[in-house]
Write a structure and sequence with these properties.
heterodimer; A: alpha/beta; Rossmann fold; 9-stranded mixed beta sheet; about 30% strand; B: alpha+beta; 7-stranded mixed beta sheet; two-stranded antiparallel ribbon; about 50% helix; globular; binds flavin-adenine dinucleotide
């Protein structure tokens, strides 16, 4: 059986983002990282692999630089890596989902893990979209997955506390922040990763005709700058501060 | 804010992908496991045992050694590991230097097959800690005159004498001890618990507080005959270990300097005096640009030296130059950074004074700064100036 984890490379949450000509300037991003929720998906994919649920393939769709994530995943234990080399910056979610679904079929994976949303777009559509395309049960926003015999049991937050959901394969889990430590690679893993070859394909190689994007991003711009802080001194300013906290900051 | 290492010339772009992955792994360890604990460790004067465990799990101990379960990385990777560890603390880097270069290396290079198979797997995993006993109370820069001696008693060796300033001594299961057998310096493996051997800790250090420093005392210490290192005689033994450790230090010092530079830069941008950030004053900028200059030069020196070390085209004098230069500028950078922090510079809220105090030890051990001057002086002139009388 094959387990797949879907990884997306995003600007590091601490990296400065510059916008020029109405577009995020990709070249200005100083550091790219694996989207944080995807890291939890990877961690649980490794746990499933260790529990004997199957081999683990790490999959990404993105430009050349995204391959670093796959090597990093191999260093912590992914058995194989699949990189669909494509410029995803102007693709809509339908295009991405059809590519990823084809990639999962290509790897014959029946258990798929990914983040509940990516740290850059925050749209949250990839997991459910891919699940529907491959005909898998989708369990969203989980914080834990375990294998129990032939089925998979996941923990997810519900309105009345926690909920344990059991599904059989094919299934897809989207990950929320989980209460687990992410593992660090070790030298042996890093040296093994060097020997593993990343399978690199194009969407066409997977038989996907992505067509034109149906969504057009008109422009991107930076969030407005925070207004400078205001300073108040002395007891006489208390009423003004209270007023401002109530009316402007909406915190009391 | 995550750590952004000063790398003005992008020297790290010369590293292989594997070396960069090792760097990121160790950097993550320092950020998450070391920095949150280091000030407490220093206050309590302890080396946290969990760091030993994690170093073993990461698989970085004895980094450049091949076989016997050892990592088999490049010397460049070893340098990078030292740099990242010492960005955390020189005491942490000292632990790794001693374990890999001073205790594992002599067994790996001069030990018997049985010794290698027995000790190296346990040491690279961190299960067993090693130490290196060369310095004596009366013989520091001049170890050739050591008085610790071993006698062949037929079915065992008997060791008598004392070593001082021994990093990891008290926590070590394995001590590689240099002693004279019939007047010739030889290496011996002494184990914790051997009859007549004790390793009391030395207390009261103002420097390397998160590192264990000990005396090794041998009073009719009895060890089996198979504990002598068969492969080397004379000072070449300890000196080959020191070459590797000094190489690592030339990288490590850069990490301490980078940490001090970052702290000084940040502090000077946020500290307002005379209505403006002190970073806006020329005197401060002069200090920061001098730090940038020296760190960049040190990085290039270390990187080039590591290429020579990996290709085997190096002489000990190359290492002396890098060790003395890089530690010298790191210490000076730490002092200037301390100055830029004003009174805050003496607090343990900032790393600068800790690095400064640590680097005083680093300047002294592994050949003092001036001993390296003398090594280079001899290389330049052909005249040794360690002692009177030209020979
Ligand atoms: C924290 C710490 C950890 C250490 N860990 C270890 C360890 O694990 N194992 C080990 O074996 N040792 C260890 N050492 C010992 C270290 O290697 C010695 O301290 C060092 O070699 C210097 O010896 P010394 O302290 O006896 O100084 P000395 O040799 O007495 O030197 C004193 C001063 O005289 C100068 N000097 C000496 N000879 C000359 C000369 N011919 N010409 C001009 N100047 C000279 C020196 O440069 C120095 O400034 C450690 C030391 C410290 C501080």
């Amino acid at each position: 059986m094959t387990i797949a984890v879907l990884l997306k490379q995003v600007p590091d949450t601490t990296a400065k983002i510059a916008v020029s000509g109405g577009r995020v300037d990709q070249l200005s991003v100083s550091k790219w990282s694996t989207s944080p929720y995807d890291e939890y998906a990877l961690e649980y994919a490794l746990k499933l692999k260790e529990a004997g649920a199957g081999n683990l393939v790490a999959i990404t769709c993105g430009p050349q630089r995204a391959s670093k994530m796959l090597t990093d995943a191999a260093a912590v234990g992914a058995d194989s890596m699949l990189h669909i080399l494509a410029d995803t910056s102007e693709m809509d979610s339908e295009q991405i989902q059809s590519i990823l679904a084809a990639a999962i079929r290509h790897c014959e994976a029946e258990i798929v893990l990914c983040g509940k949303q990516a740290a850059d777009t925050n749209s949250g559509s990839t997991g459910p979209g891919v699940a529907s395309r491959i005909g898998a049960a989708c369990v969203g926003m989980v914080s834990e997955v375990e294998v129990e015999g032939g089925s998979f049991s996941a923990l997810r937050a519900s309105s009345s506390g926690n909920e344990r959901v059991s599904v059989s394969k094919p299934c897809l889990f989207t990950f929320d922040k989980a209460a687990t430590e992410l593992r660090r690679p070790n030298v042996k893993g890093i040296m093994m990763a060097k020997r593993k070859v990343i399978e690199t394909v194009s969407p066409q190689d997977l038989g996907v005709e992505i067509g034109d994007s149906k969504v057009n991003i008109e422009s991107q711009n930076s969030p407005p700058e925070k207004p400078p802080g205001q300073k108040f001194e002395g007891a006489e300013s208390v009423p003004i501060v209270v007023l401002k906290l109530r009316e402007e900051a909406n915190v009391i | 804010m995550p750590y952004e290492a000063l790398d003005f010339y992008d020297v790290d772009s010369l590293l292989t992908e594997e070396e960069r992955m090792v760097r990121d792994m160790v950097r993550d360890f320092v950020d998450n496991d070391v920095l949150p604990k280091i000030e407490h460790a220093c206050r309590d004067g302890v080396f946290p045992d969990e760091w030993r465990v994690t170093l073993g799990e990461m698989g970085v101990l004895g980094a450049p050694l091949k076989g016997y379960g050892c990592p088999g990385l490049s010397y460049t990777a070893y340098g990078v590991i030292c740099r990242e560890l010492e960005r955390g603390d020189s005491g942490l880097r000292s632990f790794a230097s001693v374990q890999g270069s001073l205790a594992m290396y002599p067994i790996w290079d001069f030990g018997s097959e049985e010794q290698k198979n027995y000790y190296l797997p346990k040491m690279t995993s961190g299960e067993w800690v090693g130490c290196f006993g060369l310095t004596e109370p009366d013989y520091g820069s001049n170890p050739g005159d050591m008085i610790t001696k071993a006698e062949d008693k037929g079915d065992h060796f008997l060791i008598n004498g004392a070593k001082m300033w021994i990093t990891n001594g008290t926590i070590a299961q394995v001590a590689v001890v240099w002693a004279k057998l019939d007047g010739v310096i030889r290496g011996f493996i002494v184990e914790k618990g051997d009859e007549g051997f004790s390793a009391p800790e030395m207390k009261g250090k103002h420097s390397l507080k998160a590192s264990v420093t000990s005396e090794l005392v041998f009073q009719d210490c009895k060890i089996p005959k198979d504990r002598i290192l068969p492969g080397v005689k004379g000072l070449r033994g300890p000196f080959s270990c020191l070459n590797n450790a000094r190489f690592g230090i030339s990288w490590g010092a850069i990490g301490a300097a980078q940490a001090c530079f970052n702290s000084a830069r940040e502090y000077s941008l946020s500290r307002i005096q005379f209505e403006h950030p002190i970073a806006s004053y020329q005197l401060i900028q002069n200090k920061l640009s001098w730090m940038l200059r020296e760190i960049t030069k040190a990085q290039l020196l270390a990187y080039h030296l590591s290429q020579k070390k990996d290709s085997g085209e190096w002489i000990p004098e190359h290492i002396s130059l890098a060790k003395m230069n890089n530690v010298d500028i790191a210490l000076e950078i730490a002092r200037v950074a301390r100055d830029i922090h004003g009174a805050n510079g003496i607090l343990d809220e900032y790393p600068v004074m800790r690095h400064m105090a640590n680097l005083e030890s680093v300047k002294t051990y592994e050949g003092t700064h001036d001993i390296h001057n003398l090594i280079l002086g001899r290389h330049i002139t052909g005249i040794q100036a360690f002692t009177r009388g030209i020979n």
